[in-house]
Amino acid sequence: MKIKETELPGVGKKYTIELEEGGELTLIIHNTGRRELYLVEEEEEEPSCVFSLTEEEARELGFLLAGTTFQTVSTERMELLMKEIVMEWVKVGENSNFIGKTIADLEIRRKTGVSIIAIIRDGEMIPSPDPYKEKIQAGDTLIVVGTREQLIKFLEMCGDCST
Hints:
Layout: E1 3-8, E2 12-18, E3 24-30, E4 35-40, E5 49-53, H1 55-66, H2 75-84, E6 86-92, H3 103-106, H4 108-112, E7 115-121, E8 124-127, E9 141-146, H5 148-158, E10 161-162
């Protein structure tokens, strides 16, 4: 990546970055703290996008661009995770071992490794159900996350449940 730095006497500094996709991104930092960004498309002379940021906005954007608040996951790592982890919708039948019991009563995570991340009941979603209060009912759909082996244990424990 090529960055060109230019002094702007009485104004501040100008940084121009040649973009890999073509074109240039120019940042002007004024002595007042104001920032201006200009995007100039390849083979164009005039910017196609211009906007200003306050010093605080620029700092926050900088944190976001630097990845301090969110780290991306590489495609390879994501593919590995998706091969290992399964998310499944499990319908609870009328003869399930889970009826009338809470997630805590059943010790589902300890016994199977599966996590119930939501319950769908009568068309309503209950995200992150309280493991001590929410009792499982016939007809519930449990959204669960775990490995394939953990899911098999979970279905065996559930009894009358289907995917």
